[in-house]
Amino acid sequence: MSGLKRRDEFLELLTQHRSRLFSMVYAMVPNVNDAEDIFQETVVSLWKNFEQFELGTNFPAWAGKVARNKVYEWGRSKSKHRVLFGSALSETLCDLIAHEPDEASDDQDRIDALSVCIQKLRKKDQVLVRRCYGESERVNDVAGSLSRSASSIYNSLRRIRHALLNCIRAELRNEC
Fold first, then answer.
1. 150 pLDDT higher than 80
2. Rounded CA gap, 172 and 65, in Å?
3. Architecture category of domain 101-176 in CATH
4. Are the C-beta atoms of residues 171 and 102 closer than 8 Å to each other?
């Protein structure tokens, strides 16, 4: 396959999935500047390794894994910074990117749906989400202040993420 054709295929796939890929990176790091830097590194890595990608397979899943690895590399190299979400949520984000239909790729619709869904959570779950994700408190600190084990907090967060994912999907279907 010619280099120009391969380049055009890469650019088409990247353009089609850019917004979701950047959103995933931005969700995992503290600020937009870091997200932009990591996203650029991700794009370079995707291009360098595009020969390994099999056309017709799931580009968002492949690109999401590369992006997640770039975020983790960044986290390791910047000890003063930390990735906002652990591996469980990053796996969920990658799954969303890989399997969410293109028709629902409007980021603002997703943000609106997330806001609605968070409001539907029980108050104690809203507080847990705000503390662990919004305020970026460490799970061990939250667990201690609530007299719970870190394991029980992680289990609650897993249940909440699953509920939010289902709710967001339902909200997005209702908007069509």
1. yes
2. 25
3. Orthogonal Bundle (1.10)
4. no
